[in-house]
């Protein structure tokens, strides 16, 4: 039997936390291990409980969700999946640049939420399709990119993997694209994240897009 995916909920509205807990409680293989009502509490609980995934609201009192995400990821406590009622670009960019592994609107239903949690817990990334389209459009409108110096630190195969990440590919899709085993893909992803000082594959995807890969 596979291990339970442990989830921490961070939202300043108790009713929303209860709703999320109810949806995830009905999902197989997922366990809600704690709840936080603000960003500082989320950081503290993430360090103490060490969940697999933190469901993080963007707008919270005190330390906001983006700043809390950056601290949680800097300390290596958990992956973070952002949830918000807003899909404004500033929040999307801030969350993804902070290292969040995904971004969903709070209107998401139970099955989709559970699927997203499983995806992020497996080391993949998930972003609402409409948000992805806008992100790619923003990169396309920014003009031709310059080749950055940091690309020299990557092997040719790591560049190939980074290019695939920029296209939003999963490990399985990268495996098929490059004709290598998924375990090899994971190794390359881990290596390039370390070399580039990144905490999530979404950050890597942003770097890839900025470099024009």
What this model shows, in words?
It is a single chain. By secondary structure, the protein is α/β, with parallel strands linked by helices. The chain has two domains: 5-128, Response regulator (Rossmann fold, 3-Layer(aba) Sandwich); 144-210, Arc Repressor Mutant, subunit A, CATH 1.10.10.10. 52% of the residues lie in helices and 14% in strands. It has ten helices and six strands; from the N terminus they run βαβαβαβαβαβααααα. The chain has a six-stranded parallel sheet with strand order 2-1-3-4-5-6, with helices on both faces. Helix 5 links the parallel strand 5 (102-105) and strand 6. Helix 8 packs across helix 9 (182-196). The radius of gyration is 17 Å and the shape is globular.
Task: Write a brief structural summary.
With 213 residues, this protein is an alpha/beta fold. It is 52% helix and 14% strand.
- Known CATH architecture of the largest domain: 3-Layer(aba) Sandwich
Order of helices and strands: EHEHEHEHEHEHHHHH
Q: Please, what is the CATH homologous superfamily of the largest domain?
A: Response regulator
CATH class of the largest domain: Alpha Beta
- The CATH topology of the largest domain turns out to be Rossmann fold
Mean pLDDT: 84
Structural class: alpha/beta
Ends apart, CA distance between termini:
40 Å
Tell me the number of helical segments per DSSP (H or I, 4 or more residues long): 10
Give the overall silhouette. Answer: globular
Helix percentage: 40-55%
The strands making up the biggest β-sheet line up spatially as 2-1-3-4-5-6
Instruction: Please state the CA-atom Rg, rounded to the nearest Å.
Output: 17 Å
* Share of β-strand residues: 5-15%
Number of domains: 2
* Strands, count: 6
């Amino acid at each position: 039997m596979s291990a339970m995916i442990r989830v921490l909920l961070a939202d300043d509205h108790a009713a929303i936390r209860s709703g999320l807990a109810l949806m995830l409680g009905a999902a197989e293989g997922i366990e809600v291990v704690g709840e936080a009502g603000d960003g500082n509490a989320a950081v503290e609980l993430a360090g103490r409980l060490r969940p697999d995934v933190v469901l993080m609201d963007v707008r919270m009192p005190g330390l906001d969700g983006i700043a809390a995400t950056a601290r949680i990821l800097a300390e290596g406590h958990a992956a973070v999946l952002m949830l918000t009622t807003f899909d404004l670009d500033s929040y999307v960019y801030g969350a993804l640049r902070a290292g969040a592994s995904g971004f969903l609107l709070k209107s998401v239903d139970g099955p989709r939420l559970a699927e997203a949690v499983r995806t992020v817990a497996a080391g993949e990334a998930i972003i609402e399709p409409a948000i992805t389209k806008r992100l790619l459009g923003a990169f396309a409108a920014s003009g031709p990119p310059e080749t950055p110096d940091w690309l020299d630190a990557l092997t040719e195969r790591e560049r190939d993997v980074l290019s695939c990440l920029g296209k939003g590919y999963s490990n399985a899709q990268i495996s098929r694209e490059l004709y290598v085993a998924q375990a090899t893909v994971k190794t390359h992803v881990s290596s390039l994240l370390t070399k580039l000082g990144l905490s999530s594959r979404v950050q890597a995807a942003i770097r890839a897009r900025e470099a024009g890969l």
